[in-house]
Structures are given as structure tokens and as C-alpha cells.
Amino acid sequence: MSVISTTQNPDRLNFTIVAEFDATVDRVWQIWADPRQLERWWGPPTWPATFDTLEFVEGGKALYYMTGPDGERARGWWRITSLDAPSSLSFDDGFADDDWNPIDNVGVTKTAVTLEDVDGRTRMTTVATFVSAEQMNTLIEMGMEEGMSLAMGQIDAVLAG
Questions:
Q1: What is the CATH number of the domain that holds 97?
Q2: 124-141 pLDDT tens trace
Q3: 136: closest CA among 3, 4, 5, 11?
Q4: C-beta separation of 76 from 58 below 8 A
Q5: Among 59, 111, 105, 51, which residue's Cα sits nearest to residue 82?
Q6: In the prediction, which pLDDT does 74 show?
Q7: Residue 44's domain spans which residues?
């Protein structure tokens, strides 16, 4: 599996997932920049993602939904807050209603992704930061950390294809 560590830090209100891939940084960047590749891994295997919109520029947005085993759709959105191709990106992430309007049922999560070359492989470090301990606990209990780990476990297959 590509994920090599997950760490919760309640003092800093975040969790970090570190994964490594047998691919260049430029190649791993593409799994973020291309919506067809992104949707092959963004959701966990039982909740695959479909990206309706991906404006992969600073200030751009992403609108997506994940489809559950029973056909239920959970919609989400991103606002891309920074891009430094091909080494880092940051985005705000939240839930959306059926018309893509943000809903504040658990608040916004700030996510920062860093890609770095490590001996010809790419190390991807993803840090999700929460606004409060309550939000962090709620999202962890909803399965966010496990879901992200499972989702990232699908990246090797995307890179190989």
C-alpha cells in the first residue's frame, strides 16, 4: 500500500497522511490536475468520486460527488487557495447540497498537499486542518481519515494506467 503513515495531532487540530509512489513528482501532480484521474482515486473504493467541475488554478473550484454502495450521493466542493506546480497545492473543502451550495453541517477543512522527490519516488504529504476539536472529532468519526487512506491506496493503479 502506498500510505506509509497517518498521524492525528489534536493539539494542532490536524491529521497528516504520508504516501509514497513509484512515479515522478510531475506524474503524481497529474493525478490532482486531471479530473478523470482524480475521480479514479479521490473517494474510497466504496464511495467513488465524480468531478463535475475542476478549475485547477489558484482561486478555482472543484465540485464533486461521491456515490455510495446504495446509490446515495454525498456532494462536496473545494476552493483552491494555492498552487505551486508541481510541488504543492492547498484547498478548502466542504460539503454541498444538491445545487452545489456549500452547507455548514460540519464546517470547512483546510487541506495542504506537498509533493517531493525522495530517491526517485514521490512522497505526498497531505495535512487536513480543522477549525475546532469538535469538527476534527466529528469528521474522524465519520471516517474521513480511513476514507482518505483507502482513497490514496488506489493511486498506484492510477499511476500504472
A1: 3.30.530.20
A2: 999 999 999 999 999 999
A3: 11
A4: no
A5: 59
A6: 93
A7: 3-160
Contacts of 77 (CB under 8 A, 6+ apart): 61, 62, 63, 64, 93, 94, 95, 96, 100, 102
* Distance, C-alpha 57 to centroid of its chain: 16
Domains in the chain, number: 1
pLDDT-derived band at 1, boundaries 50, 70, 90: low
106 pLDDT higher than 60: yes
pTM exceeding the 0.90 threshold for the entire prediction: yes
CA angle 156, 62, 109 (to 5 degrees): 85
Average pLDDT over residues 17-26: 97
Phi, psi of 79 (to 5 degrees): -125, 115
Assign 101 to helix, strand or coil.
Answer: coil
Grid cell of 5 as nine digits: 503513515
**Cβ partners under 8 Å of residue 10, min gap 6:** 133, 136
- Coil vs helix vs strand at 136: helix
